[in-house]
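Budget justification aside, the reviewers requested a transparent look at the raw inputs and outputs of the sequence design task funded under Objective 1. We therefore reproduce one unedited record. The lines immediately below are the structure tokens for a 279-residue chain.
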């Protein structure tokens, strides 16, 4: 048995980390405890973040929404602010794992796992979210796009934790869309996913676009060429086919047991075509 600490505040957390150097933090444990059981990790001690109030809750702060890193996916789904402001994130949370995984797993855990298939990542990339990192000495914000540095890798410094996720309050988006293609409907990691935000004016012309794909590269992929292709033009199926071709050139899918690269490239483009049905 290794020691497990359950701090009730950030100051208790820093004390626990000082007492147990090399300890790993966890929230829901749906990634970390699974890896530990499989023998992939052997931390000398564990620190559970679940009881720390400072890491929980959803609130509006000026032009931003602050989402506590230790909020579970189920808690976020139940939040009126999340439902009304960021339906693109809600759509991703709804298809993340099973009800049990959503009850245990947290937003912070999903981001710190930094899987290219992590479902909350594409919406938060498209929304230009920031993460707030905490140490005993300071808090520091950085764009999520810089925080995730590779598959399973983040810019989290040793001894720091992810405290919260800051989302600019979306304004003007007429479409917030997330779609995930998996090998089955439930409990499947994405083979390809797409988060898309569009601002389309009354004449059907796209004024702004933000697109982010999951599972088609070492991290979430964005494609500014595809976004630029849509802007200032009438949103139509032929235009989306043009943008899809640019996205298919830009992505660099991996091959794993779930799908080959060519299939992922094709689906990455095809997911864009769906946007024609939504405007
Ligand atoms: C059966 C099953 C199905 C799944 N399906 C999906 C799916 O469809 N889509 C998907 O995206 N994921 C899926 N997952 C993966 C997992 O459930 C999610 O990534 C979940 O959000 C992880 O959150 P957690 O709180 O359980 O993370 P934990 O396991 O607690 O932690 C994961 C990692 O993050 C670190 N960490 C956690 N919180 C913090 C913090 N605040 N600060 C610093 N580091 C932190 C931990 O040290 C660890 O390295 C699935 C997992 C299982 C077991």
């Amino acid at each position: 048995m290794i020691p497990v600490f359950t701090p009730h505040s950030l100051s208790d957390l820093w004390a626990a980390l000082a007492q147990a150097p090399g300890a790993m933090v966890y929230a829901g444990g749906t990634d970390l405890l699974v890896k530990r059981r499989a023998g992939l990790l052997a931390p000398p001690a564990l620190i559970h973040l679940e009881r720390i109030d400072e890491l929980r809750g959803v609130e509006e702060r000026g032009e931003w929404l602050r989402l506590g890193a230790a909020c579970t996916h189920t808690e976020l789904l139940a939040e009126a602010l999340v439902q009304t402001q960021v339906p693109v994130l809600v759509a991703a949370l709804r298809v993340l794992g099973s009800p049990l995984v959503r009850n245990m797993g947290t937003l912070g855990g999903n981001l710190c796992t930094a899987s290219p298939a992590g479902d909350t990542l594409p919406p938060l990339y498209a929304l230009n979210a920031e993460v707030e990192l905490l140490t005993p000495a300071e808090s520091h914000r950085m764009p999520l796009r810089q925080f995730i540095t590779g598959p399973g890798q983040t810019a989290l410094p040793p001894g720091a934790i992810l405290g919260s996720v800051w989302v600019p309050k979306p304004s003007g988006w007429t479409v917030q869309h997330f779609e995930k293609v998996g090998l089955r409907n439930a409990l499947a990691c994405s083979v390809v996913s797409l988060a898309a935000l569009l601002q389309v004016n009354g004449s059907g012309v796209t004024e702004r676009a933000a697109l982010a794909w999951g599972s088609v590269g070492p991290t979430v992929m964005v494609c500014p060429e595809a976004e630029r292709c849509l802007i200032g033009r009438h949103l139509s199926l032929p235009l989306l086919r043009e943008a899809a071709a640019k996205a298919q050139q830009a992505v660099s899918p991996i091959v794993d047991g779930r799908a080959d690269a060519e299939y992922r490239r094709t689906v990455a483009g095809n997911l864009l075509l769906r946007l024609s049905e939504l405007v």
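The chain has two domains: 52-168, 175-277. Residues 52-168 form a domain with the Uridine Diphospho-n-acetylenolpyruvylglucosamine Reductase; domain 3 fold (CATH 3.30.465.10). Computational costs for records of this kind are itemized in the attached budget.
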